[in-house]
Amino acid sequence: MTRRFHVDPGALRHELVLEIQSGAADGLGGRDDAWMPVATVFARIEPVSAGQTFAGAQDIEATTHRITLRHRVGVESGMRFVKGARRFRIVTVRDPDETGRFLICQTEELP
Description:
- There is one protein chain.
- By secondary structure, the protein is an all-beta fold.
- It has one domain (12-110): Bacteriophage SPP1 head-tail adaptor protein (Thrombin, subunit H, Beta Barrel), CATH 2.40.10.270.
- It has no helices and six strands.
- The protein has strands at 14-25, 31-55, 58-70, 80-83, 86-94, 102-110.
- A six-stranded antiparallel barrel has the order 1-2-3-6-5-4.
- The N and C termini lie far apart (42 Å).
């Protein structure tokens, strides 16, 4: 018997816009990357880690978050969540207890 994942519904209080990247040819051999909204969802945002690395002669800061939301078909890595000026790139998506009730997304906050 597997243990059921529990989330207090009141914890899903952050309103986020789920977006997908839709690139189109720019006519010059490149792509014009645009983000299109897919849905507005309510979720819990939990900071997981923060770190700093040095690359390309500059410091690069990385902050990861765990975002929990009600199950929704079509959420996948490469998409992103937006909350105001904040952007969270989805790295992984999983159903914590495989019941189809919730999704947990590991994300990186974009600068």
